[in-house]
Amino acid sequence: MGAISELNLPVGVLYGDDVLKLFQHARKNGYAIPACNVTSSSTVVAALEAARDQKAPIILQTSQGGAAYFAGKGIKDSAEKREASVAGAVAAAHYIRAIAPIYGVPVVLHTDHCAKKLLPWFDGMLDADEEEFKKSGKPLFSSHMLDLSEESIEENIETCVNYFKRMAPMKQWLEMEIGITGGEEDGVDNSEVDNASLYTQPEDIWQIEQALSPISPYFSIAAGFGNVHGVYAPGNVKLHPELLGKHQAFVAEKLGSKEDKPVFFVFHGGSGSTKKEYTDAISHGVVKVNVDTDLQYAYLTGIRDYVTSNIDYLKTQVGNPDGPNKPNKKKYDPRVWVREGEKTMKARVEEALKDFNASGSI
Ligand SMILES: [Zn+2]
């Protein structure tokens, strides 16, 4: 693989042409970058530590619910303003921008699914992006996702076009979704959606390309190929990553392009998939894979195992099996037990970096 170092990317959060260069490099060299959903400084550093140790780029993203959590569950998040999810996303962005450079890896700072009813969240983040752009010539976030996949394709594309025009002067990346990701995530429940609508058609991809590419080259498509959010019993999910290859061929022919994979694809619902499903999808131009559910579980396991194996040291502040007057402070300090969750999450992110061939790319 051509090393990312050839690209001369800065460390820390990337913007504009650097994001494009990174995704082009991934597509050309057959790797994808894991997108880690973060909800706290603790999950941010776990993901960054994994990227540093695997010498790889990383994508950090907040969902709307994750952003609101960043602000604190005690803050009201009204449907009209989404003040908590806006403030939480902005706070997360400032934190990540400040901390990422000391990990020495390139980072794409992204926000996850924004459905129609959440557009006030998107508006608030774009206001913050534009404010930052005026100051520094860069937006706050590298990239945002719009997900109007539950609406008609016409409304989906029109909404994306309108927002993309606002994002383009900042060279900000847009991820859009077409075709529904099944399952349930963050309050969006698509578990009853019938199977056929989980698969995107090549004509849809071409329609999106025609609408977005005149505005700016900085966009990717989360196309449904049977993906489902969450992890279910084996056999319930039928992924068809080869459909992405058909989309690429269709668009390449329409464009008369020399590039055999002209589209940047995103794989949603990556948790619980097999290494072969990942590598097949990556071979068809997937540059970003979302693995939220597996990371949530991984984060829990370290904390769960710590608590269960130290339970007799955690019931009282003083007194444990070593003596009635022995203090337990060293056991209940959050830096000790939260750290155990960071370690297990970090290990799962490292596994994803290896599975997606991103490990060792810098
Ligand atoms: Zn998703």
TrEMBL record:
Chain positions recorded as Zn(2+) 1 binding sites: 113, 229, 268
Cofactor (UniProt): Zn(2+)
Keyword Zinc among UniProt keywords: yes
Enzyme class at the top of the EC tree: lyase
Binding site for Zn(2+) 2: 147, 177
GO molecular function: fructose-bisphosphate aldolase activity; zinc ion binding
One of the record's GO cellular component terms: cytosol
Cofactor note: Binds 2 Zn(2+) ions per subunit. One is catalytic and the other provides a structural contribution.
Protein name according to UniProt: Fructose-bisphosphate aldolase
